[in-house]
Amino acid sequence: MSNKRRMAGVTLVELIVAIVIVGVALAGLVAAYNRASVASADPVITRQMLAIAESMMEEVMLKPYDGGDGAVGATRAQYDEIGDYANYSAQAVTDADGQPIAGLGRYTVSVTVGPLSAALPGVDANDARRIDVTVAHGAERLTLSGWRTRP
Question: Distance (Å, rounded) from C-alpha 72 to C-alpha 121?
Answer without folding.
Answer: 31
